[in-house]
Amino acid sequence: MTFVKLYKTGQKQEKAMPDIAIVGSVALDSVKTPFGERNDVLGGAATYASFAASFFAKPGIIAVVGEDFPEAHLELLRKRGIDLRGLEKEGRTFRWQGSYEYDMNEAKTLKTELNSFENFNPKVPEEYKKAGYVFLANINPELQMKVLEQIKKPKLAMLDTMNLWISTKKQKLLEAIKKVDLLLLNDSEARQLFETPNLVKAAMQALKLGPKHVIIKKGEHGALYFTEQNHFSAPSYPLETIKDPTGCGDSFAGALIGYLAKTNDNSEKNIRKAIIYGSTIASFNAEDFSLERMKRLNMEEIEKRYSEFERIREF
Amino acid sequence: MTFVKLYKTGQKQEKAMPDIAIVGSVALDSVKTPFGERNDVLGGAATYASFAASFFAKPGIIAVVGEDFPEAHLELLRKRGIDLRGLEKEGRTFRWQGSYEYDMNEAKTLKTELNSFENFNPKVPEEYKKAGYVFLANINPELQMKVLEQIKKPKLAMLDTMNLWISTKKQKLLEAIKKVDLLLLNDSEARQLFETPNLVKAAMQALKLGPKHVIIKKGEHGALYFTEQNHFSAPSYPLETIKDPTGCGDSFAGALIGYLAKTNDNSEKNIRKAIIYGSTIASFNAEDFSLERMKRLNMEEIEKRYSEFERIREF
């Protein structure tokens, strides 16, 4: 096992700590939607999340890729200022194959090859251990806990998960949820985990476990944010064409925690803003395959769409 | 065929015109939800809509009930100031029987008895013909047109429909839509009518037909409002317990047009406010069976929840 080189030969050796430690998959995706098909393109929860976060702050990835992982992808992440000291290299890259039906609501997973993730044992680099923000993206909850334990007193730890872990590792997942400040779920996962069709009830139960903040992602219907006292309903952006929704949830999460890290403010008021930045980046992400749209996205476009979100909800 | 008496003997004979003419069903519903069961209770689109509208303005119903329709129900509507001069009495009352699964998202229709609605030929009373507002609630689009043709120059005509008419009377429905100012649909109907899973595309197509305003109801996910230039996303109210969602869409519509009639302002800005009043009343309606919650609802509660809607979307 080796670690990915953080810098290419001759590049300046920057020593800055990342603001956000992000654990999750870095993958090669094969995706089919009604608007086209892409094979072995850059994907993975940690990839989308860290790229989205990089618009606001400095993320560091904790993950593993294979020897077959294209150098061009690493270069893309490096150029965004994403810290790769926590990215190992071993065996063959994790691969996900999925397709979307015409309604684009939910991905149908056709194939998952864990490959190098099968025996992944995350080691948090020294430089990451003082990161103020931690995002435990969708991954085995035991690994999520292992990462969280290695970070010293983060200001905010956020956890995402998926149906697989709710079915197979529910107890471990609940233990992990107890240890984080912000729980992120999509609506079907919230219903499944708390065994209720009512999202308000699910959120109330989640808050009782420990997290002070619960965010439920609803895809094209926006997102809900619950604290013990309050409720926030974020609209979604009205896109006429959605080419590929892969990574939207992770981009949402990455931008959200990126904005929090940038502003260093975890108040409810600021989390509401962070959710809108998350929705903004996620809406761009859906406009093209893989990270294509994010690659050509700039802050001016982001701020413009953010202000459109303000008009969308005005009455 | 007879007409329902507008006033009980001895009551003051008020001659005021209604502000809003509402055509649609007045029914006896039998409903089963995970929270209970009610048989032959007051229901129907025109009933819910006119009751909801009566918090803001004076509605007049155009419909037919049977000889078996309880006088107590008529008395309830009269007391709310709802004009019944357009309510005929003949044969047996329209009956709907439905149930909701645990997720409460969509009613499953178990039985529909058209009864006196089978040969209903709506006659608009003289007193209604100058109504400034018209709501063509869910009913055969040919009857909707017949009603609209009898109203002289309304300031705003709004049309709602259902999957049945999209399947069986699509051409007539499209003709009727061309004649109204505001089209109201739920999300599945919008997708079905315009043959696209994308609600933005569906709304754009609807706007091309003629209506200046298109509102798509999304149940627990709120509502979307489209004009050619703008888009508004209304949140839903986070209810922990929904006892019976029957009539929520009609209550939403009734309150919406009631508020427009009260303020006599059909600007986009005011329609946004009207949508929030609609969402407010609909959220109360779901809290109990039939019209039970609306019967004990007052303006203070309405204004309080309206201002909660303001906080829900603030960022």
Description:
- Two copies of one chain form a homodimer.
- With 315 residues, the first copy, chain A, is an alpha/beta fold.
- Chain A has one domain (16-312): Ribokinase (UDP-N-acetylmuramoyl-L-alanine:D-glutamate ligase, 3-Layer(aba) Sandwich).
- Chain A has eleven helices and 14 strands.
- Chain A has helices at 45-53, 71-79, 141-150, 163-168, 170-178, 187-194, 199-209, 248-263, 268-285, 292-295, 299-312, and strands spanning 2-3, 20-23, 27-33, 36-43, 59-65, 83-89, 95-100, 107-113, 133-136, 156-159, 182-186, 213-217, 223-226, 231-234.
- In chain A, the strands form two sheets. In chain A, strands 1-6-5-2-9-10-11-12-13-14 form a ten-stranded mixed β-sheet, with helices on both faces.
- In chain A, β12 and β13 form a beta hairpin.
- Chain A is globular and about 55 Å long.
- The interface between A and B is large, with 38 and 39 residues.
What is CATH's topology name of chain A?
UDP-N-acetylmuramoyl-L-alanine:D-glutamate ligase
**N-to-C order of helices and strands of chain A:** EEEEHEHEEEEHEHHEHHEEEHHHH
Report the principal-axis shape of chain A: globular
What fraction strand of chain A?
15-25%
Number of helices of chain A: 11
Ends apart, CA distance between termini of chain A? 57 Å
Q: Using a beta-carbon cutoff below 8 angstroms, give the protein chain pair with the largest interface and the number of residues from each chain.
A: A-B, 38 and 39 residues
Uncertain runs of chain A are none
Order of strands in the sheet with most strands of chain A: 1-6-5-2-9-10-11-12-13-14
Let me know the largest β-sheet of chain A.
Answer: 10 strands, mixed
Look at the structure and name the CATH superfamily of chain A: Ribokinase
Multimeric state of these chains?
homodimer
Number of strands of chain A: 14
Tally of structural domains of chain A: 1
Helical content class of chain A: 25-40%
From the alpha carbons, calculate the radius of gyration of chain A and give it in angstroms. 18 Å
The first-level CATH class name of chain A: Alpha Beta
